[in-house]
Amino acid sequence: MPIDRLRAVMLSGVLLTGVVVVGSVLGLGGCSPQSAKTDQPPEEAEPKSASGQKDGASSSKAADRTLRFDFGPGPVESGYTQILATTLFTRDLGYGFEKGAKVTGVDRGDADALRRDFCTSNQPFFFSVAVPEGNYNVTVILGDRMKESTTTVKAELRRLMLEKVHTAAGQWAARTFTVNVRTPRIAGGGEVRLKGREKTTEWWDWDDKLTLEFSNTRPCVCGLEVAKAEDAVTVFLLGDSTVCDQPGEPYTSWGQMLPRFFRPGVAVANHAESGESLRSSLSAGRLAKVASAIRPGDYLFIQYGHNDEKEHGSGIGAFGNYQTELKQFVREARRHGATPVLVTPMHRRTFDASGRITNSHGDYPEAMRQVAREEKVPLVDLLAMSQRFYEALGPEKSAAAFKSGDRTHHSAYGAYELARCIVEGIKQNKLDLTKYLADDVPPFDPSHPDSPADFQVPVSPGVASAAPLGS
Fold it and tell me: For residues 16 and 173, what is the distance between their CA atoms, to the nearest angstrom?
């Protein structure tokens, strides 16, 4: 049953008599983006024959059509490609589970070919589809006739797309979100000068494929559709390690949490990177890369300061090169018809004896505010909101918002709350982007943050082998 007809019966709860068939298992343990990295972009595994799979769509490398996948060992829905528990990704095949997935295929024996079977696991698992650079609408069909399911979906490097989708036994849910896929190539010539970590532990952010991570207590994936989203609004991010896609737990940045707060039709393209300043981002071609892809109606969120304030030399400083380069970023976005948004750097966890946060950024936040006023640019004052957030928790409990022993880089909880601050900034600035915010996003007051004890986003496989660059 195609997805458009499936939605009409998604909560029907119809129970049909059936049997359970357990598919093959890849007993290699949970995998992670770091699990098989070398000093160069990882080579793909040897091509694996698809002869054991029922026919459906062919290789997913084409981007001019919708790619449809039917998960599980049962009969295949017309127009779909079957995904078995043994379907490993190779470049020749163009889709499949990433190496290390421990997945079981289950068939309930119902009449509905798409909903009767699914793939599941008690560990997080990754599924990839080879696609060219661009934005893609991804629709997942989740659920099981006989048992409840709970699924969290992340994309690429731990970008939170679906926080928690729960279905009761006999119910199914279809959810759509929009993902940005990119490569280092710059349209018109050249490439982004990647750091060593971007070629290894962060390579999934730069390769020619869309990777999804499924997790939570019992993810049940029945179907998947991937379609090019030509009309999507893209929210580009440029910044440092407090913004970028961090590859390994427990480090997490607000840019990784932001996609969860948008409806389908908005893609977050996170071009921030650890250790970056405005100057180094310009030198590495990161602004050039964004400029080659940004279009009228898109947005560019710009947050720098943590590393800029460590630079020295003639003309270097908050009211020197920092302001000059901020204006260059702003004008480049506007030259392409996009909306620039300046974001002041959040505070470090630096409390004084009275329990108040002290400013460790010197004049840099005020220098950014001045540029925002002069250039009439929307400003999200994350510095001010983070102070309210940290002080509400206090000197001791605020540690839950950070990686243990780190006063700069955040935990998943801290990143999530800071993403909520960004969302409030979008609302306060009355950006047109506000209409694309998810329906389940309530108002947020940083002075009354969510309790760390209530935060339940599952951790991803893989622990960071090194701290992010910068501090």
Answer: 18
The answer on 319 and 242 residing in a single domain is yes
Other C-beta atoms lying within 10 Å of the C-beta of residue 187:
11
Q: Which long-range contacts (CB under 8 A, 24 or more apart) does 366-370 make?
A: 366/318, 367/318, 367/319, 367/322, 367/323, 367/326, 368/305, 368/322, 368/326, 368/342, 368/344, 369/344, 370/319, 370/323
Say if CB 301 and CB 433 are below 8 A apart: no
Residue 335 φ then ψ, to 5°: -60, -25
Domain termination residue (choose one: 228, 244, 279): 228
Q: What is the mean pLDDT of the chain?
A: 88
In a domain, 1, yes or no: no
User: What is the tens place of the pLDDT at every residue in 186-234?
Assistant: 999 999 999 999 999 999 999 999 999 999 999 999 999 999 999 999 9
Return the higher-pLDDT residue of 462 and 297: 297
Task: Report, as an integer, the average pLDDT of 164-180.
Answer: 98
What is the model's pLDDT at position 24?
37
Going by C-alpha positions, the residue among 314, 116, 329, 353 that lies closest to residue 238 is 329
Q: What's the gap between Cα 146 and its chain centre? A: 31
Q: What is the CATH number of the domain that holds 427?
A: 3.40.50.1110
Does 11 reside within a domain?
Answer: no
| pLDDT at 279 exceeding the cut of 70 | yes
Our measurement of the distance from residue 323's CA atom to the centroid of its chain's CA atoms, rounded to an integer in Å, reads 29
Range of the domain at 75: 18-228
Tokens representing 33 are 């983006």
Same domain, yes or no: 208 and 60: yes
Q: Of 137, 123, 112, 134, which Cα lies nearest the Cα of 17?
A: 112
Distance CA 462, CA 225 (A): 27
Q: Given a cut of 80, is residue 31 above it in pLDDT?
A: no
State which amino acid sits at residue 443: P
Helix/strand/coil for 207: coil
In a domain, 470, yes or no: no
Domain presence at residue 7: no
pTM: 0.88
Is 267 in a helix, a strand, or coil?
Answer: strand
Q: Is 67 in the same domain as 206?
A: yes
Cβ-based neighbour number of residue 430 at 10 Å: 9
219 and 366 inside one domain: no
| 59-63, 105-109, 335-339, 449-453: the lowest-pLDDT one | 59-63
Taking 60 as the threshold, does the pLDDT of residue 88 lie above it?
A: yes
Count of the separate structural domains present in the chain: 2
